[in-house]
Specification:
The chain is mainly beta. It is 6% helix and 55% strand. Strands 2-4-5-6-7-8-9-12-13-15-16-17-18-19 form a 14-stranded antiparallel beta barrel. The chain is elongated.
Length: 451
């Protein structure tokens, strides 16, 4: 993609400053934070062995073989944050958008298989890049998280009765761009500065996999396993300026050439999105009207890259003794790996020929991966406790328009961030000591159609 334009000196300087400060912040995708599907969220996200709808694209694709008949899920999720520093709301963006899933199962040689596509489409922004300095206090794990389009594609096979495997693939893109400017820069007469520019942007596909397996030895027990690979999206931007540097001694006189061939190159390397590796084991037990499920996930936050731009500058003024001092490189954030336990319960309160009503509740505990913030950085994210309560309705009231029963699931979710006091080692720290905490509250609704 290329465009051409003339730029004044002031425009060129503005472009350079923009490149310096275009820092993308790295955060996991919104499904890691808030879950997918009202039923699975109602179980506290403990769906690695208990999922039975298109949300298993995310939790465990092997469970797709448990679904019979074409299934379409349509849902909406809304989470409103109230995250504070010293009792002042930081106005972190809400998480809201559409959740859509389609599952197409088949039986081949007495074995089940299924393919599925799932999507989360934010209704505010499809994506966002924020520019914040290292020292600014913030909840880095929520900063860009809500503003992500997520698309999953999965396939599952039943190897033998009671044992299935599945795999999913997700597609996103890295972006690399370079702006090239060629011409003449007039130091004391900006109106005489002319720069002819071109922009070259390249989008490279990034694919990251998910694997899953499920074992159902009998109707009462299911064991699930899932592996979600870590991934990151890069946003690398650059500017390359070449040309003459001149000065005009007086109006009407020929400009004096100070530098015949000057060159300025600035490259900003950013990690625009990061999602850690997850390895999860889940167990589900059901008997009569009761169902209980539990997950334990290992999350590799130690691979979290620095969420600051890494800037490189090269200045060549054709023999002039001018050097650009090296820029300080951001320090690694030093996040740690964590274990996240989840548990969920479901009770079939009403079971009749025309209607089923299920009541669900769930809980999870997510310790903070963020180390003490005693120096420059100010990542305020604390330990999270997540609570959910939901209800599921299965009804045949719409027959014969819909030959199969319709499922409607509703859930409300509350995520509490434990208060965290940040104390600085230096008594003259730019920010000083402060206290962080807050909560997120909202819910989700999903309608499932089967054909």
């Amino acid at each position: 993609m290329t465009s051409w334009m003339h730029r004044s000196k002031s425009q060129w300087l503005a472009t350079a400053l923009l490149m310096v400060w275009s820092m993308g912040y790295a955060n996991a995708n919104p499904l890691d934070s808030f879950g997918l599907g009202a039923r699975s969220i109602g179980l506290g996200g403990a769906a690695t062995a208990a999922g039975d709808d298109s949300s298993v694209n995310y939790y465990n694709p092997a469970l797709l073989t448990k679904i019979s008949g074409l299934q379409v899920d349509l849902g909406y999720v809304y989470m409103k944050p109230q995250l504070e520093l010293n009792n002042a709301d930081l106005e972190v963006d809400q998480h809201s958008g559409l959740q859509i899933g389609v599952v197409l199962p088949r039986t081949i040689a007495d074995r089940r298989m299924a393919v599925s596509v799932g999507m989360f489409l934010p209704d505010a922004r499809v994506t966002r890049i924020r520019a914040l300095p290292d020292y600014q206090p913030r909840f880095v794990l929520f900063d860009n998280r809500p503003q992500r389009l997520v698309v999953t594609t999965s396939v599952a096979f039943e190897i033998i009765k009671g044992f299935s495997v599945g795999a999913g693939l997700n597609f996103m893109s890295n972006a690399e761009g370079m702006e090239s400017l060629r011409g003449t820069i007039n130091l004391n007469n900006p109106e005489e500065t002319t720069l002819l520019g071109s922009v070259d942007v390249d989008f490279a596909a990034v694919r990251y996999p998910t694997f899953g397996a499920s074992i159902t030895p009998n109707k009462n027990w299911t064991l699930g396993f899932s592996y979600r690979e870590r991934f990151q999206l890069n946003l690398n931007l650059g500017i390359d300026v070449q040309g003459k540097i001149v000065t005009s001694p007086a109006p009407g006189q020929e400009p004096i050439v100070l530098v015949e061939e000057a060159r300025f190159i600035l490259i900003s390397n950013n990690t625009n999105l990061f999602s850690p590796r997850h390895i999860t084991v889940g167990l589900m037990h059901e008997r009569d009207r009761f169902k209980v499920c539990a997950d334990l996930a290992w999350v590799e936050w130690s691979a979290f890259p620095t969420p600051s731009s890494r800037v490189e500058i090269d200045l060549d003024l054709e023999g002039l003794d001018v050097e650009v001092p090296p820029l300080d490189r951001p320090e690694p954030p030093g996040f740690k790996n964590i274990f996240v336990p989840r548990i969920g319960f479901e009770y079939q309160a009403i079971r009749s020929s025309s209607v089923h009503v299920a009541i669900r509740s769930g809980y999870y505990y997510e310790p903070s991966p963020v180390p003490p913030q005693r120096a420059l950085t100010n990542f305020a994210d604390g330990t999270k406790h997540g609570f959910s309560f939901g209800i599921g309705l299965k009804t045949s009231a719409f027959q014969p328009v819909f030959p199969e029963p319709i499922h409607i699931d509703l859930v409300t979710q509350y995520i509490h961030l434990m208060p965290r006091t940040i104390r600085k080692d230096s008594p003259v720290d730019l920010i000083g000591d402060y206290r962080a905490g807050g909560y997120l509250f909202g819910g989700s609704a999903t309608m499932r159609l089967q054909f």
